[in-house]
Structure formats: C-alpha cells, structure tokens
Amino acid sequence: MNDPIRLLQNHRSIRKFLTTPIEQEKLDAILHSGQMASTSSNMQAYSVIGVTDAELKKRLALLCGNQAYIEQCPIFLVWCADLHRLSAASEMHGTEAQTDTTEHFIIATVDAALAAQNAAVAAESLGLGIVYIGGIRNRIAEVAELLKLPVLVYPVFGMCVGYPDQTPLMRPRLPLAAIFHQETYHTDNELSAINEYDETTREYMLARSEGRANRSWSEQMAERMASPSRLHMQSFLMKQGFLRK
Ligand SMILES: Cc1cc2nc3c(=O)[nH]c(=O)nc-3n(C[C@H](O)[C@H](O)[C@H](O)COP(=O)(O)O)c2cc1C
Fold it and tell me: Which domains does the chain have, with CATH numbers?
C-alpha cells in the first residue's frame, strides 16, 4: 500500500483537540488542497469561512448542539455552498444566473463537499485531526445570521481542525460488497451485508461505549431514520434563494 492510501484508510474523526494553533503554512496548504479538488465545470461554487475567534466559536458550538470540540479546536471551518459569486459574475455580463434550480443546488453542495474532503485529507497528512459538523444545520438561520451569509450561500457543514488530543478507535465500515455493485445495482445481498456489518461492529460498539451499549448499527440507523430531522432546511434554503425549481 502507498502512503496516501494508508492515510485515507487510517481516518477517524477527532473530537478532542490540543489548543496548539495551526501553523499558517499548514493552513494555507490545507485550503489550497481543498481548492484543487475537482469542481463542476470549474464553477467553484463554494466558500469556506475560517473561525478562530473564541467568542464566535463558543456561539457556534452552542448553535451546533453544544458540541464542545468546536470551542476547543483552534480553527472551525464552515464549508458553504455558494452561488452568490456566480450570480455576481453573471451580472458583470448582463445575464441573470439561474441560481434557484435543484441542479445548481446539487452542484454547489457537491463542490463544497469535495473541497472539504480534500482539505480534510491534507490536514490529516500534516498530523492534524478533523471532525465534520453537520450540527451546523441544527439552527442554520441563526448560524447564517452570525456568519453574515448573503443570499445564495448556505453552510453545508462545519469542520473542526486541530492537533488531536486523543486516538480514537477506527470505526469499521460496511463490507465492500454492500456499497460496490458490479455492472448494475443489486439488492439481493443487502440484508446479509447488514447482518455481517452488525456482527463486525459489535465489538467496536461495545468498546466505544465502554461496555454499556450493545445496539447494532442497523438498530441505530432504524431509530435515526424513523424521525424526520431538520425539517426547517427546505424553507431556509428557499429563503436563501436555492431550490425554487
Ligand atoms: C457531513 C457530516 C456531518 C457530521 N456531523 C457530525 C457532528 O455534527 N458531530 C460529530 O461529532 N460528528 C459528525 N460527523 C462525523 C461522523 O459521525 C463520522 O464521520 C462517522 O461516524 C464515521 O466515523 P469516523 O469519521 O471516525 O470514521 C459528521 C460527518 C459528516 C460526513
């Protein structure tokens, strides 16, 4: 195996950070690596906000469901889907950008995610740790106001970055056969793959919860999928100018 593959396969989310700041050179390398991700038609329909201010991080931690590591990490990156700049570019040429289509919403969201994941891998290669924060969408309107987001920009997720102060267990993934389909999609192995994963993750679940919880992955997912989450998202996105057609 080569080093990049070893690095990718060694990923684990970090939720406890040292207060050590990140060297500017490293931060620049992380962000530049994010920028070099593939981007739909070179649209680069995303922006990232770096939050280092202690008070701002504290408020964001609260808005994201009291996730303390947002406060602890030296920098909290907020990855945003961004059609605002493309709208401005269109205006420069006297045309109106079709920013409210589902397609452009997907493009901007995917662009943000690809850039973020490139940045995450770059950070990990430099000895830093990361955790994505979907909790940023819990109270998204307040986050948007706090970060002064204009229309046509929305935070897809946050990301804590910093030097790790923990070495968590690696979280096992589904068997490859569950996610890889040869030639066409197959559903016949779905249940056996879920059973296999429940079995292989049993030990991890027990170790992670120090022997308390022994709920399987499928049980956890069933519970999670049973209730709708963040129902405010649709109206928020429409208010921001996305997804109207
Ligand atoms: C889009 C996204 C949002 C996430 N949001 C959170 C979050 O709000 N809080 C958290 O502690 N972890 C969050 N995570 C981390 C996942 O829980 C984690 O990646 C997953 O359980 C797999 O574990 P691993 O990253 O350690 O391999 C998020 C991950 C992704 C990709």
Answer: 3-168+230-239 (3.40.109.10), 176-214 (no CATH)
Protein residues whose CB sits closer than 6 Å to any atom of ligand 1:
11-13, 15, 67, 131-135, 157, 171
Atom of ligand 1 nearest to the CA of 11: 27
Model confidence band, residue 156 (pLDDT cutoffs 50, 70, 90): very high
The residue-averaged pLDDT of 28-57 equals: 98
Length in residues, the chain: 245
The CA distance from 131 to 25, in Å, is 21
Edge to edge, the sheet with strand 46-51 lists 46-51, 75-82, 153-162, 129-133
Using a cut of 0.90, tell me whether the model's pTM lies above it: yes
131 Cα–ligand 1 center, Å: 6
Q: Are 157 and 116 in contact (CB under 8 A)?
A: yes
